[in-house]
Amino acid sequence: MIRSALVGSLVLLAACGGSHRQVQDAPRWQTEKQSVRMEIVKTLLDSGESVRALELIRMMRVDGVDDPQLDMLQGVALRQQGLSDEAERLLLKAQTRDQRNPAVYRELCVLYADDERTAEAIDACHRATELNAADAKAWNNYGFLLLTAGEDPKAAREALQKAVEIDATVARYRNNLAYAQALSGDHRAALKTFMTTGTPADAHYNVGTAFERNGDDATALTYYKRALKMDAEHLYADEAVKRLASKTTEEN
Questions:
Q1: Residue 227 to residue 247: CA distance in whole angstroms
Q2: How far apart are CA 102 and CA 126, in angstroms?
Q3: How far apart are CA 54 and CA 65, in angstroms?
Q4: Long-range contacts: 175-178, Cβ < 8 Å, 24+?
Q5: Can you give 69-130 as a three-state secondary structure string?
Q6: DSSP label of 252
């Protein structure tokens, strides 16, 4: 199915990147301890355990840790808690202190996307790709935002293609690329790519959604019916066929 959005797993993984800098020299034991605790915070955020992450961050602050990487991670934790304003303040602080850390821009991108500030999200994701052209997550998020905004389908497809070229192991990247291919009219390529992420029935259903989004209900219905023929228990395709059939009846 199409589950192509800037959601949890992408967001949390994005938080783990970026450089780490000591603001001031510290004894080796203290530096190593700080590094270990930073990694624990990242792991907690990857697991969605933002409350525990914030508690560890609080302890690090009490110990005098003052680092832009910690600012960023605290911003991520606050975003996970739904505190967008405070999260943005911390992320912008991290950005000011470490202006060439792509992870900060990647996190700002996700925050702005969550808040439906699409233009700012696109700018932040684009900046992340400029700072690290090998960041598949940033390319995927950038391409998906362009795709959903409908602003530049060609650029969206190119960005999503870049994400897959960098890391083809992530099914979500391939799924997003397939949807971009379908929306741009390259349905054969879309079917082929979709089949790497699901069943043939799923692939035909997904291509059908692209036709429907582009206003071609008749062709969308054809693809939905093909999906049902391949899998009679495909609930999404069944619902789509019934929905479009009902729509046609109402229009007539």
A1: 19
A2: 10
A3: 14
A4: 175/2, 175/3, 175/4, 175/206, 176/4, 176/140, 176/143, 176/144, 176/147, 177/143, 178/203, 178/206
A5: HHHHHHHHHHHHCCCHHHHHHHHHHHHHHCCCCHHHHHHHHHHHHHCCCHHHHHHHHHHHHH
A6: -
0.90 surpassed by pTM: no
> Per-residue pLDDT tens for 129-164?
999 999 999 999 999 999 988 878 899 999 999 999
Rounded distance between C-alpha atoms, residue 79 and residue 15, angstroms: 11
Block residue for tokens 């495909």 = 234
Cα distance between residue 176 and residue 139, in whole Å: 11
pLDDT digits (tens, 9 = 90+) for 23-74: 344 444 345 688 899 999 999 999 999 999 999 999 999 999 999 999 999 9
Query: Any idea what DSSP says for residue 203?
Result: H
- As given in the structure block, the two tokens for residue 240 are 């789509």
